[in-house]
């Protein structure tokens, strides 16, 4: 009887995220009433993405990841895009959308690439329960990565920053991971690569590299790396849009005619 | 000497949000190293938007606001848009951007309109320190609003939901506001309007209405209402995009030719 | 029997634009095979938007409208947004989307506002068949508009350009409208207002104003003004994105840290 | 003296597309006054993308390409996205942007992939002036492609359509290319592959495949394929957005709660 109905839209209405009934919403198995009352927003983000609540240690680290992404002033192309769109008089959601479109592979793609690198290397190991042995293996991986990229004349993703020598977010995150005893194999690998690349080239881990390692140890696959970054950065973007709309003239001129170099016919 | 330089881009590089120096990032006056170590992500959101940290009571309530926005299954147009864009093979940031574009005045605009309504009414009062007197005034406002919209044959924004009779998020948020002693004039007004409209028409406060009242009592102006909603909803949208990419065939057919009604020439 | 089917999606699959059958596509009543073989692309645009083919005179004028929108170098915020998004390594469709989001009410909204102004004024007239009488009425309208905006201390939409004294596109379009005998009441009104505002304030019609008048005389309502502008401008935006991707370094730095003024705490 | 100025923004204001001076705009070496008066819109698109005007034969073919992309009813995800965004009450430019974001590699990416395939194969040939010899070489290439994809169990891009057996646009475009004497090596290759794949598997060239061949013979590189498709499709998308806004209720329900299958906890 419903044959036609199911042919029309066979899959489009399937989800495991939230069950919505009249007067009741259940997300990842928890009543939203309970979630609203009892959990931190960062735990809610973890829950909705991973399908389970974090442990206390995981929750603390994930919260720190989100905070570390919040803002980098007006230097990123995404923030500049947000402000340009806002200056044209477009609504706030359009300006956020514009900013997200600037998260191309050169701007925000680094975190996924770094997660892929770390995870593919760690997945290639046979990890024992013996931490000394494993540390040795991971040190070996770090040398492999360093050599592979150096001989290929490529940048290792997750290292180096165009404005910072020591990315303060990366340094603090690694310090906290150690202090809080949250060090899995991916963080170990990140630190081992940093030791090498710092010694040889004076380059340090950046915020993407640090978070790639932490998210990997939290069990996130690379395909969610950009998603977590977006969640962390959107508040900063909205703050910039609001500032643009409050403090600047609409449709302000970003250049004068004689600032443009024309090199065509 | 720098005349040309300043003429080019006189304002584009001004901000009060973050100061970025080599190896140091300061946001709203706080070193990001400290923020990463010490504050909850929901407090970071508050800080970056409002320029100050919340009190403990404010922080708890704001956290609950963010959690309450997280997800409403696949029913909202924004979620459906996110999944459509993702199904075409576009990257995750494009799919989130698409979802945000669906936050038009009919979908996500309600929170700002409700904040405007509540704040314009409350701003018209001369609030005393005498809570009995003020409650009386607010009860009067509620009657004004009810009459104004009923006689104008218009829907009061922030009330009624197309899937719920009792929006469980709104009910829980109001319960928590009362329990936690976080009741300012806007929440009082929301509850007073709800009493009236529920008695006369069986309609209740929805999640937008409840959050409009809370955000107003937290000191947010209407122009940030949609921004807070976006921050709260983005994690849910990303979960749906990820689910679409993992569990569904790419470029799945959403309709067959004979499901379409053509009414042109 | 199909009750459920129709309840699901009662309207979503209705259209009068194209009928798609297996191996056959009919648009606005014409077989696409014929359209591909026989009509100019600008006529196709007219047909799909208005539901009928233009007359020869209309088609010529509409073609000129589209050409006039094509590009204004790197000065518009939309073009700058397109280049910023492209510089981040995002794909071309994302960069075009970003550009479109910069068509806020300050950048590209002028054409709709001008169409609304011209059409609301002309619709208030009782046009006779006597052109002398009508010209007199239209001259009166122009004075009304000028006075209304001057006394209200507002800019008349469609007049003045931040880079040009005489917008060459507007001047050429009006010259062609006259030469080709395509002058309806909206073009007459635009020219009458220009005479006044030029005499009194030295301000001339701009490209939005000229096209608002022409599109109004072509029978377009204001809600399609921005749509026609988008169609005209997208080729230019794509040329800029391509140029950015070919000629510039990806993720080039748009500012240095000491170019930013921080005025927060 | 201007050192600082150039450091700030060393490249951002360079373009070869249009030179904008006060009261004068020159695009690709032509005064826009002349372009507006004299050329077809499709020629303007060619000019701005390629930097030169097309020959008469090229111009005719390119016009046909653009017309052929205009609309495919409500079946494509991009059109459905456009309507969803529009239904939420968002402005027209946001709805077009949403549609463009649905041009992922599965929906609109085929044209670029097909151009890459055809061009990489043709570039590997040493084309003589002897058309019989060249035809033989191209026939050989077609067999290579067919075998490569068949043995790899992959779909050849540019062939097959989920709604059509014979894509009427592809068939008409190939017929016109032949009739108008516009047959370069890429079109020959497309036809040769079609002969094989039709004979062996009953599959025909689709609109993307036909246009990939034509655009390749027009001298477009693959990185502009999606751009040309966008230019051609935007008018259809705008027609759908307009229809949605005119003919449908805002924020119409696209599903009921019991149409959704929840398969989570």
Describe the structure.
Four copies of one chain form a homotetramer. The first copy, chain A, is mostly helical. Chain A has twelve helices and five strands. Chain A has helices at 3-8, 32-38, 41-50, 56-68, 77-87, 92-101, 110-123, 131-151, 168-179, 185-201, 207-217, 225-247; strands at residues 14-15, 18-21, 24-27, 30-31, 261-262. The first copy, chain A, has a three-stranded antiparallel β-sheet with strand order 2-3-4. In chain A, strand 2 (18-21) and strand 3 (24-27) form a beta hairpin. In chain A, helix 4 (56-68) runs antiparallel to helix 11 (207-217) and helix 5 (77-87) crosses helix 12. Chain A starts with a helix and ends with a strand. The interface between A and B is large, with 93 and 94 residues. Strand 1 (14-15) of chain A pairs parallel with strand 5 (261-262) of chain D.
Secondary structure: number of strands of chain A: 5
Strand content of chain A: 5-15%
Radius of gyration of chain A: 22 Å
Name the largest protein-protein interface in this structure.
Answer: A-B, 93 and 94 residues
The helicity of chain A comes to 55-70%
Which blocks of ≥5 consecutive residues of chain A have pLDDT under 50? Answer: 1-11
Q: In oligomeric terms, what are we looking at?
A: homotetramer
Overall mean pLDDT of chain A: 91
Task: Report a brief summary of the structure.
The structure is a homotetramer of 265-residue chains. With 265 residues, chain A is mainly alpha-helical.
Structure characteristics:
homotetramer; mainly alpha
SSE arrangement:
4 copies of one chain form a homotetramer.
Chain A: H1 3-8, E1 14-15, E2 18-21, E3 24-27, E4 30-31, H2 32-38, H3 41-50, H4 56-68, H5 77-87, H6 92-101, H7 110-123, H8 131-151, H9 168-179, H10 185-201, H11 207-217, H12 225-247, E5 261-262
Antiparallel strand pairs in A: 2-3, 3-4
Helix pairs in contact in A: 4-9, 4-11, 4-12, 5-6, 5-12, 6-12, 7-11, 8-10, 9-11, 10-11
């Amino acid at each position: 009887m419903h044959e036609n109905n199911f042919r029309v839209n066979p899959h489009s209405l399937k989800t495991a995220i939230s069950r919505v009934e009249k007067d009741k919403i259940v997300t990842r198995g928890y009543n939203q009433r309970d979630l609203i009352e009892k959990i931190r927003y960062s735990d809610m983000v973890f829950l909705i993405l991973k399908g389970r609540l974090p442990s206390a240690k995981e929750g603390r680290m994930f919260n720190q990841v989100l905070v570390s992404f919040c803002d980098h002033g007006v230097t990123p192309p995404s923030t500049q895009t947000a402000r340009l769109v806002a200056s044209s008089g477009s609504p706030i959601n359009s300006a956020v959308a514009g900013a997200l479109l600037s998260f191309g592979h050169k701007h925000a793609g680094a975190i996924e690439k770094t997660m892929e690198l770390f995870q593919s290397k760690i997945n290639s190991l046979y990890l024992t329960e013996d931490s000394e042995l494993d540390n040795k293996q991971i040190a070996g991986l770090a040398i492999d990565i360093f050599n592979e990229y150096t001989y290929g004349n490529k940048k290792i993703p997750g290292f180096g920053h165009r404005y910072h020598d020591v990315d303060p977010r990366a340094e603090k995150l690694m310090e906290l991971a150690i202090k809080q005893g949250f060090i899995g194999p991916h963080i170990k690998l990140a630190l081992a690569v940093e030791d090498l690349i710092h010694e040889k080239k004076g380059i340090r881990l950046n915020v993407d590299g640090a978070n790639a390692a932490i998210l990997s140890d939290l069990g996130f696959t690379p395909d969610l790396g950009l998603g977590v970054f977006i969640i962390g950065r959107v508040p900063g973007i909205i703050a910039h849009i609001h500032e643009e709309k409050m403090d600047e003239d609409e449709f302000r001129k970003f250049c004068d005619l004689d600032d443009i170099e024309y090199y065509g016919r």
